[in-house]
From TrEMBL:
One term of GO molecular function: oxidoreductase activity, acting on paired donors, with incorporation or reduction of molecular oxygen
Residues of the signal peptide: none
Domain of life: Bacteria
Gene Ontology CC: cytosol
UniProt source species: Leucobacter chromiisoli
Pfam families attached to this UniProt entry: Bac_luciferase (PF00296)
Protein name: LLM class flavin-dependent oxidoreductase
Length: 350
């Protein structure tokens, strides 16, 4: 391990699916925007959205960020994660650049790569028939970063007076700094080492891969974080983010507590075995402030992280998510040594 002392918590946020109803998607999408505005009021540092295709969850983070930028002023807008295999890196760079410009440089793109996972006939519709010849490796993300950095795409000929002088040699809108705010969301040592060598930030969540004889979840993730930093040009200063499903019962109604316990109990059996070749799943953390703080403080993956993200359960409702975020910002975070953004601002101005 690169370091034995727990790292100070510098950044606290959440991950949300932004689920919606088939017949009324606008309601769920607008509730997602309301939740981001509420999180900003609480002083949380960032809100992250998942990406879902052919499901009742947000498929387009950049579109959501553009809307959230009009409802918020400060909170970071992260994606956890965008599977770049579904994307044309050129068009994704345009969308992310637009959202980042509208938000004043608050977009935090989390990315991943993997080959198409649908049956062939579905892949033919989703990706077009050329998907079999595409490269879905890490180079796809390298190309996206290059485009976000403003690298030249073409030579622009001298303006000849026809059509307006609007041509650019790079992807527009270009948002300076966006290419340096990229996370790779992974769950293997191979991905961790690649992300480190490539100079990305590292994001891990509640699903991972058992490797090298390790099956205990926190040990697996700690090994990945250490491998990431061992390869990163910034070494021990490289930024790592840990996300888990954590549900506080303090401040919840009896009905909410019952719902939360039933949710966690139903999901616990899946955490007690290895799925498929080597997939492992972290158990959900449900409990009081003291129980949650004790768990996080003793988890060696959290000890190595700079940022903590609470993953909001998909099946809950807006009032439940708000209760979780309120406890995170007002009780759990401060107990872990974190300060809400407005308190930091007040202290800096004093």
């Amino acid at each position: 391990m690169t370091s034995t002392a727990p790292r100070p918590l510098r950044h606290l946020g959440f991950i949300h699916l932004v689920p919606f109803d088939r017949e009324n998607p606008a309601k769920g999408l607008n509730e997602g925007l309301e939740l981001f505005a509420y999180a900003e009021e609480l002083g949380l540092d960032s809100g992250w959205v998942r990406t879902r295709h052919l499901q009742y969850g947000l498929p387009s983070p950049a579109s959501f960020f553009a809307a959230a930028a009009q409802r918020t002023d400060r909170i970071g807008l992260g994606s956890a994660v965008i599977p770049v295999g579904f994307e044309n890196p050129f068009r994704l760079a345009e969308d992310l650049g637009t959202a980042d410009a509208l938000s004043g440089g608050r977009v935090l793109p989390g990315l991943s790569v993997h080959p198409p996972g649908y049956p062939d006939e579905v892949n033919d519709l989703v990706h077009d028939t050329g998907w079999r010849d595409e490269d879905y490796g890490y180079g796809r993300i390298e190309r996206l970063r290059s485009l976000l950095a403003g690298d030249r795409v073409r030579e622009v000929p001298e303006y000849n007076g026809i059509g307006g002088d609007f041509d650019s040699e790079r992807v527009e809108p270009h948002s300076p700094g966006l290419s340096e705010r990229l996370w790779y969301g992974g769950g293997s040592l191979r991905s961790a080492e690649w992300a480190g060598r490539a100079g990305f930030n590292w994001l891990v969540s509640n699903i991972s891969s058992a490797e090298n004889g390790l099956t205990e979840f926190s040990e697996v993730q700690r090994a990945q974080i250490d491998a990431f930093r061992a390869q990163h040009p910034e070494g021990d200063d490289a930024r790592a983010t840990v996300a888990r499903v954590i549900v506080p019962t303090d401040g919840a109604t009896p009905e909410q507590v019952r719902k939360y316990r039933e949710y966690a109990d139903a999901r616990t059996p899946r955490t007690k075995k290895v799925h498929g070749k080597n997939t492992i799943i972290a158990r959900d953390v449900l409990g009081s402030l003291d129980e949650i703080v004790e768990f996080i403080s003793n988890d060696i993956a959290f000890q190595a992280a700079d940022d903590y993200l609470f993953e909001l359960p998909f099946e809950f409702e807006l009032d439940d998510w708000k209760q979780i975020l309120h406890q995170l910002a007002t009780s759990i975070g401060p107990a872990l040594g974190w300060e809400p953004a407005h308190r930091r601002t007040e202290r800096a101005a004093a």
